[in-house]
Design a protein that fits this description.
Blueprint lengths: L11 H20 L3 H14 L3 E2 H6 L9 E6 L3 E6 L10 E6 L4 E12 L2 E9 L12 E8 L5 E6 L37 E4 L19 H14 L9 E7 L4 E3 L5 E4 L2 H16 L7 E6 L16 H13 L4 H9 L2 E4 L3 E2 L21 E4 L3 E2 L10 H13 L4 E3 L9 E2 L3 H5 L4 E6 L1 E2 L7 E4 H15 L5
Parallel strand pairs: 1-2, 4-13, 4-14, 14-20, 15-21, 16-18
Antiparallel strand pairs: 2-3, 3-13, 5-6, 5-10, 6-9, 7-8, 7-10, 11-12, 12-22, 16-20, 17-19
Helix pairs in contact: 1-10, 5-10, 6-7
């Protein structure tokens, strides 16, 4: 079977729809560079379509009924959305599940220091990254600082044209002979990924330290003054802060033909956006649909906001209770009878690194929506392995909707591998398969996708949500 390029078959109307969708996608990427920012955008988009917070729905006495549209937020970092269908929840749901966290650098709890008249913020990288890719590029700072009195200060520095940006320095090539001999994993050490935030010392005329000398760290003192004056925070407030360092700048069209998008965080926000967009288009569904946009996938889906937490399961229990028929058995039936697309990306075939791919079983940019029967490493370690019956069902659903798709693996068998949230959801006994967009430069500061794949994946999600279930 030869790879197909979906661009060849598009009508003028489809090209127009594709371009309009991708404009909205770029706006989504620009507005949501962190999990918290994504959740804010997601809630805003859902509420515009009539969705209400589940906690408000639970206050009333009315039973859950067809057409009810609710969402539940978990610690401002993940959100689950439901569109209630005509049948009982115990019959199962059609579920889309993506993650909204991406590789980045997190600011440490005691981060600010000065060395040789340069002020730094100490960081700890998050997720799988090639550390050398994060030096000498403009970086922005996003997140929250929560003070002891409960006040939350929101930081978003480096995205506006007038904002300052930050960066990690690298050694000039003239002095880098020993550095260039190191392995790629050692060229830049993790502890060297500290961002430079200042160089100007604080000068206060007539003021000296207790020993009669100038301040020991005047550049650090200047940064603290800026933080105090502009944001009202003290150094100790870093102890209760969540600050993420990400590439600065907007999502951009790529290529002379503008056929691609180059941007930070497309793994997995390309699937989060297309899942959300498709979900909000399907206003009237027969079978209850569910959208999960979760956190912490890049570090194993752990923690209170990751997919391994009980938040999702507890939320389903509340919905069944609102039906007026709760039992543990109905909860288990709901989960087991559900069908899910684990909305996650695959690695696009890269001719420049062809030796890492099985060309016959790779995903291609412009090839449409990608299904991955299994992920995992080498001998499918840590993988969900979808059943043939489920794949056949999905093939018919997409073929009937005239959606272009491809089926692929991540790379050659012994090269490496990766995982998604699919195996976590499969533990309930539901049918699950990974389905999303092919991404070039995956996990780099700037990743690339085909606009056609974004469009086809959204269409595939719509077809799945409208399907009757197995």
């Amino acid at each position: 079977m030869e790879a197909k390029n979906v661009w060849k078959d598009y009508t003028a109307r489809q090209l127009k729809e594709c371009e309009a969708l991708n404009r909205e996608y770029k706006e989504f990427l620009d507005a949501g560079k962190t999990e918290r920012e994504c959740v804010d955008v997601i809630i805003s988009m859902a509420e515009e379509k009539g969705y209400v917070e589940l906690s408000e729905k639970l206050k009333g006495r009315a039973r859950l009924k067809k057409g009810d549209k609710v969402y539940a937020v978990n610690m401002n970092k993940s959100v689950t959305v439901f569109n209630i269908g005509s049948g009982p929840l115990s019959d199962g749901m059609n579920i889309l599940g993506a993650h909204i966290d991406s590789p980045r650098m997190d600011v440490k709890s005691n981060p600010l220091y000065e060395d040789s008249s340069i002020a730094y913020l100490d960081t700890h990288y998050y997720g799988g990254v090639k550390k050398y890719q994060w030096v000498t590029i403009p970086l922005s700072l996003h997140g929250v600082i929560v003070k002891k009195d409960g006040t939350t200060v929101i930081l978003d520095i480096g995205e506006d044209d007038d904002d300052p940006v930050f960066f990690v320095s690298d050694l000039l090539i003239h002095l880098a002979s020993k550095q260039m001999e190191k392995k790629g994993s050692e060229v830049i050490e993790g502890e060297a990924l500290d961002i430079i935030v200042g160089n100007r010392p604080l000068v206060v005329k007539g003021k000296k330290g207790d020993d009669g000398k100038e301040d020991k760290d005047p550049v650090k003192a200047m940064i603290l003054k800026v933080l105090k004056d502009d944001y009202g925070v003290e150094e100790e407030d870093f102890l209760s802060a969540e600050l993420e360092v990400v590439p600065a700048g907007k999502a951009r069209d790529a290529g002379l033909d503008r056929s691609m998008i180059l941007a930070y965080g497309q793994d997995d926000r390309v699937c989060a956006f297309t899942s959300l967009y498709a979900f909000l288009q399907c206003s009237d569904v027969k079978r209850t649909s569910c959208l999960i946009l979760t956190d912490k996938e890049e570090i194993g889906s752990v923690g209170a906001t990751g997919m391994t937490s009980l938040f999702f399961e507890n939320t389903i229990a509340k919905l069944i209770d609102k039906e007026g028929t709760y039992s543990e058995l109905k909860l288990r039936d709901c989960l087991a009878n559900s069908c899910m697309l684990s909305s996650d990306v695959n690695a696009a075939y890269d001719p420049s690194y062809a030796s890492s791919f099985d060309k016959r079983n790779a995903s291609y940019m412009g090839g449409g929506m990608v299904f991955s029967k299994f992920t995992g490493s080498r001998g499918k370690s840590g993988s969900n392995d979808a059943n043939a019956e489920y794949i056949a069902y999905l093939r018919k659903v997409l073929d009937d909707a005239k959606v272009s798709y491809q089926i692929a693996e991540l790379g050659k068998v012994d090269i490496g591998g990766g995982g998604t949230i699919a195996y976590i959801m499969a533990k309930y006994g539901m049918n699950v398969i990974d389905a999303g967009v092919a991404v070039l430069n995956m996990h780099a500061p700037y990743e690339a996708t085909s606009k056609a794949d974004v469009y086809e994946t959204m269409r595939g999600y719509v077809a799945f949500l409208n399907a009757p279930g197995m």
